[in-house]
Amino acid sequence: MYKLLKRSRVVISLLILVVITLNFLYFANRETLFFAHFLKIQFVPALLGAFTGSGIIFSLLIILTLSFGRVYCSTLCPLGTLQDIFTRMAGIFKSKKKRRFSYSSPKSILRYSLLALALISLIFGITSIISYLDPYSNFGRISTELIGRAEQLIQNGLSAIVPESVFFRTYSTFVAGSFAFAAAFLILIIVMSAFWGRLYCNTICPVGTFLGLLSRFSMFKPQINSQNCNHCTICLQNCKSGCIDAISCKIDESRCVACLDCMTKCKKGAISYKFSWKKKITEETPKDNNQGKLQSRERREAIIAMGLMGTLLASRALGFPRQIDSAPKITGIAPPGAGSIENLKKNCTACQACISACPNGIIKPATTQYGLDGILMPVLSFEKQFCGFDCTVCNQVCPNGALKPLSLEEKKLTQIGRANFRLKKCIVYTDKTDCGACDEHCPTKAITMVPYRDTGLFIPKLNKDICIGCGGCQYVCPATPEKAITVSANEVHKTAQKPTVEKQEKVKVDSFGF
Q1: Phi and psi (nearest 5°) for 329?
Q2: Is residue 289 assigned to a domain?
Q3: What's the pLDDT tens digit per position in 230-282?
Q4: Among 190, 268, 342, 401, which is least packed, fewest CB within 10 Å?
Q5: In a shared domain, residues 259 and 135
Q6: Which CB contacts under 8 angstroms, 24+ apart, belong to 298-304?
Q7: CA 39, CA 24: separation in Å to the nearest integer?
Q8: Residue 445 and residue 69: Cα distance in Å, rounded?
Q9: pTM above the 0.85 mark?
């Protein structure tokens, strides 16, 4: 039975890995938003979105853990599956002896310190810390920065060979810091997985630590029947979590990822999932001070973690504002659906789902535009394109609630910023020539061309009330080295006025000046 369960687990975990990876690849995420639904089954997005539409999913993940332990880590987490793949690949180059795992003591201080740090920061509305540790968000950055860019290189290489069949994709804005972070994290995971199996899951990952605490109370737990066990240690040698103490026949369920490897390898059938809520009745309970102290410490750890999680959920339910802001002046423009920079910082884990899905490639990882607590979060860049007037993809794929879904009509009136015109930078002023490019590209007609003095030329005139800050004017402006028209951010997104339908006199433009 356990062999069948393990095969099923492996198949499901690989399917989840493939489906989630497809969300970050161009050829898949442009065609359909179907794959984006699978992002919401990840633990941290479900937690952060508990009050924005994902409360049911978060509850189901908790129930799953309380029933069977850390099934999420072995089956639903793409980074967990990736670690297993690296462990298996590394085993090809190892001798049989070096492929064996051994029992390791739990790194409790490190584990619970990182979990407490992540939860406390979330209580204060800061997601940047957990975004660096969250397995899903890190997998998203690896997929976008490494796998996605490799896909683009391959496509553009094929475009050079067969331009009639494969089109060339313009490269999006490259942020070296984001790429370096993803590459460094991937190297860390490869090294840890190759030598120590699931060490990352059981030392650094706050999701694994929290679910491990819940696993102590799960309905079914892996247990060793000491009467059947002959202490051959084959279970320990195959335990990539290093959580089986073969001498005392104990399994640390807080570190067990429910991979079922030990159960399929045990030739005596000494390890199995057993119902653990049944009260054990013994004639005599031996006194063991060390065991009592251990259980008391475990209870304290669980109570503290549950208390922090409860405080986090309560703070989000009551809508407490962020307590820390590291950017006195916001220069970054948040994508439509963010609502405000505060909401973005409070919910975004920089998974880059919106970055990889943006058809125009104008969303990039932030550096300092939002401050130190907004690094790697999505920010708009109008260097190579502008925000599509009829596009809502970014807020449809966001699993966290950082970008809330907008209807197309809502999107067309969402003012993420406002355009600003500087006459002395405009080529009408500097080159004494007609242009009108900004007027032609403004979807709401917030820009109109009006006579400029008595020169016979026309200059832009802004109506900021109907401007939505899409960046079309900034992108197309031919002025160099500085643009004559730029978009400044709205820290809190507003609703623009509906443009009035007026008959406009078409301006004949002989030359755009570029």
Answers
A1: -135, 115
A2: no
A3: 888 899 999 999 999 888 889 999 999 999 999 999 988 899 999 988 754 44
A4: 268
A5: yes
A6: 298/216, 298/254, 301/108, 301/112, 301/213, 302/213, 302/216, 302/217, 304/112, 304/116
A7: 11
A8: 57
A9: yes
What residue numbers bound the domain in which 181 lies? 2-277+294-317
Last residue of a domain, one of 286, 317, 348: 317
Domain total for the chain?
2
My answer on whether 43 and 190 are in the same domain is yes
Contacts of 126 (CB under 8 A, 6+ apart): 322, 324, 345, 373
Token pair for 242 = 């290093």
Query: Does residue 17 lie within any of the structural domains?
Result: yes
Tokens 């959920």 correspond to: 313
Contact between 486 and 420 under an 8 Å Cβ cutoff? The reply is yes
CATH code, domain with 513? 3.30.70.20
**What does the pLDDT look like over 92-139, one tens digit per residue?**
998 888 888 999 888 888 999 999 999 999 888 889 899 999 999 999
Contact 328, 479 (CB under 8 A): no
Domain membership flag for residue 359: no
The position carrying tokens 């028209």 is 485
- Flag whether 412 is in a domain: no
Rounded to whole angstroms, the Cα distance separating 239 from 224 reads 14
Two tokens, residue 388 = 């599509």
Q: How far apart are CA 360 and CA 441, in angstroms?
A: 15
Determine the Cα–Cα distance for residues 201 and 241; give it in Å rounded to an integer. 8
d(CA 437, CA 152): 31
Whole-angstrom distance, CA of residue 42 vs CA of residue 77: 7
Task: Summarize pLDDT for 35-69 with one digit per residue, the tens.
Answer: 888 999 999 999 988 776 668 899 999 999 999 99
